[in-house]
């Protein structure tokens, strides 16, 4: 006799059908017996031989306890088992005896499924995990092991992310234990708060037993930006800059760098969206021109998570001007007649739009008559004279302002010259002694004097005199008429001999 296959799950319920309808209207079931497997004793009895089937006496065996109930309202009628036990599996036979008709048997094979236990998730150290786990770092690997015990038949064990199957490669490590290890080689940003579920299933009747974990993830910053963007800065002027970074969890740590030096005293804040903001106030200097200003953002919990934004600083400043002698090392060594070269060195950003030269505070231009020639950043004094003695400066201008150089004093050393506004005529009687004073100007002042008398009849250098530096006094006594005439005085120093002597006239004294 063919059997009908029914499937039930432990702790569930099952209805085993049995057709008790009579072939004829004037007949009805008199005795209904349920047998299991090869048992000779019925496990459930409904006896209507002495009355109506609706009021028949029902009895069940001890193994069914109060779990069995025969429902005759539905068609076909059925024997309901609730709850189902594992031992209920087997072959059931429903025998129906009618008052008149012949006996009818229905054979049913009941397969009982035993669900597995609840899966258990552990980490690589064997610690049990459930709910929110971590945090772990973006870029790290992750290994999760899921095990489940029990189940008949043995369950499949799979890993899922939402509705996506991740891993269905499970193994049986013992007769009733199944294991599946999920390996993620590199965690990505999208794994943040991902729900990973391990499911154990051995039937399509009940919901699979499962265990889930939610990934808490530390992630790297994805963007860093400086505001305002690259622009020239003025030296010695305070500037405020803002650097923002987003995408990091926890919020990124922001640092400022100028070259290899970290800048301090920045103000940092974090908003509710996890965006980090750092405000830097600093005063750029001229020496910062060309250095790199960098804003770095990193998640301190993740190595190699630094990203940065920055640029090469362009610092604007007024011209820095320095004046120096180009051909002579010491300004005090310039001698009358030398050519003097003055070089104006300029450091400027942006570059200058004008340059000028000053002598004793007054602007000077190229003047070939006076020996002044200016070419770009060089001033040439040709055959320097005593009139060129004084202070020289140069100055330059750009959009940031004016720069004035240091002063260079040109001290022109020259041969002796006669001092102006000194007495040049002396009246003296014969046999009277006169003191003739001769004053010179010279640099250096160490002067060697010479005197000479000259008249129409005689010339003599035999004159008695005394001298000190640039001053000399000759003592002269005329004795005859031929001793009246002119006296010449001149000097010599390290620069040279006096070109034009000082002339003094000796006249006879009048009445």
From TrEMBL:
It is a single-pass membrane protein. The lineage of its organism: Eukaryota, Metazoa, Ecdysozoa, Arthropoda, Chelicerata. PANTHER family: OBSCURIN, SIDESTEP PROTEIN. InterPro entries: CD80_C2-set (IPR013162), Ig-like_dom (IPR007110), Ig-like_dom_sf (IPR036179), Ig-like_fold (IPR013783), Ig_sub (IPR003599), Ig_sub2 (IPR003598), Ig_V-set (IPR013106). Its main location: membrane. The keyword Repeat does not apply. It comes from the Eukaryota. This is Synaptogenesis protein syg-2-like isoform X5. It is found in: Membrane. Residues 14-105, 119-214, 221-314, 319-411, 416-489 form the Ig-like domain. It holds the Pfam family Ig_3. SMART domains: IG (SM00409), IGc2 (SM00408). It comes from Limulus polyphemus. Keywords: Disulfide bond, Membrane, Transmembrane, Transmembrane helix.
């Amino acid at each position: 006799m063919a059997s009908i296959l029914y499937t039930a799950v432990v702790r569930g319920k099952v209805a085993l059908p049995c057709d008790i309808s009579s072939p004829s209207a004037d007949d009805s079931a008199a005795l209904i017996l349920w047998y299991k497997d090869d048992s000779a004793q019925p496990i459930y009895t409904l006896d209507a031989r002495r009355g109506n089937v609706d009021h028949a006496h029902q009895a069940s065996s001890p193994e069914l306890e109060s779990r069995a109930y025969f429902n005759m309202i539905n068609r076909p009628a059925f024997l309901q088992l609730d709850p189902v036990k594992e031992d209920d599996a087997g072959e059931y036979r429903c025998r129906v005896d009618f008052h008149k008709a012949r006996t009818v048997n229905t054979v049913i094979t009941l397969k009982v499924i035993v669900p597995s236990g609840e899966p258990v998730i552990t980490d690589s150290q064997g610690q049990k995990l459930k709910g929110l786990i971590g945090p772990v770092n973006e870029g790290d690997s992750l290994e999760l092991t899921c095990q489940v015990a029990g189940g008949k038949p043995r369950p499949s064990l799979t890993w899922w992310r939402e509705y996506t199957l991740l891993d269905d490669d499970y193994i049986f490590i013992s007769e009733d234990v199944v294991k599946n290890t999920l390996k993620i080689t590199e965690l990505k940003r999208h794994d943040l708060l991902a729900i990973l579920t391990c499911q154990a299933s051995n039937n399509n009747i009940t919901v699979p037993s499962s265990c889930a974990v939610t990934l808490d993830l530390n992630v790297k910053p994805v963007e860093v930006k400086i505001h305002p963007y690259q622009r020239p800065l003025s030296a010695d002027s305070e500037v405020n800059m803002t650097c923002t970074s987003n995408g990091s969890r926890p919020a990124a740590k922001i640092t400022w760098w100028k070259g290899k030096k970290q800048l301090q005293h920045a103000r940092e804040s974090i908003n509710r969206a996890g965006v980090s903001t750092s405000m830097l106030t600093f005063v750029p200097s001229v020496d910062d021109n060309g250095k790199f200003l960098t804003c770095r953002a990193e998640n301190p919990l993740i190595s190699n998570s630094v990203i940065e934004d920055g640029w090469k600083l362009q610092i604007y400043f007024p011209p820095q001007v320095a004046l120096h002698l180009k051909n002579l090392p010491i300004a005090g060594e310039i001698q009358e007649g030398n050519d003097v070269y003055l070089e104006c060195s300029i450091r400027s950003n942006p570059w200058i739009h004008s340059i000028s030269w000053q002598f004793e505070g007054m602007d000077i231009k190229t003047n070939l008559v006076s020996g002044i020639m200016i070419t770009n950043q060089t001033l040439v004094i040709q055959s320097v004279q005593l009139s060129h003695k004084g202070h020289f400066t140069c100055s330059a201008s750009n959009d940031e302002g004016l720069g004035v150089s240091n002063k260079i004093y040109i001290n022109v050393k020259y041969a002796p010259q006669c001092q102006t506004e000194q007495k040049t005529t002396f009246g003296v009687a014969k046999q009277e002694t006169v003191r003739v004073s001769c004053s010179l100007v010279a640099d250096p002042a160490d002067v060697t004097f010479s005197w000479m008398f000259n008249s129409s009849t005689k010339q003599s250098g035999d004159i008695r005199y005394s001298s000190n530096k640039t001053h000399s006094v000759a003592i002269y006594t005329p004795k005859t008429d031929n001793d009246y005439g002119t006296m010449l005085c001149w000097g010599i120093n390290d620069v040279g001999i006096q070109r034009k002597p000082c002339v003094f006239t000796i006249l006879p004294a009048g009445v």
